[in-house]
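Final report, section 2: Outcomes. Of the targets proposed, Small ribosomal subunit protein uS19m is the one most frequently requested by collaborating groups, and we therefore present its record in full.
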Amino acid sequence: MPRRSIWKGSFVDAFLLRMKKKRDLLFNRKIWSRRSSILPEFVDCFVRIYNGKTFVRCKITEGKVGHKFGEFAFTRKRRPSRTNIGPGRKRGKK
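The predicted structure is given below as C-alpha cells.
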C-alpha cells in the first residue's frame, strides 16, 4: 500500500487533536476513527476502538506510535483451520 507523502504529515481526526492538549479527556475514550494515526502524546492512555460491532480496549504504548488505531482492533473473527475432522466423519463426497 502506498505511504502518505511526508510533506502532508500523518492524518489525525480533528477531535483527537483537541484531545491531545487535554490528556485526562483521552483516558478510556471511545474512538470511531480507525484511520487516524497514533501520536506520541497518546502514550500510556487506554482507548476503546470501534471494530464495527463493539469497542475493543487498547493501551497505547511507544511501539504503537505512528500506526493507525484500526490496526489494533480486528474486524474479523479468527477461525481455526479444519484440518482435523473427528472420528466417524468422512471427508469429501463419494
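The chain has one helix and three strands.
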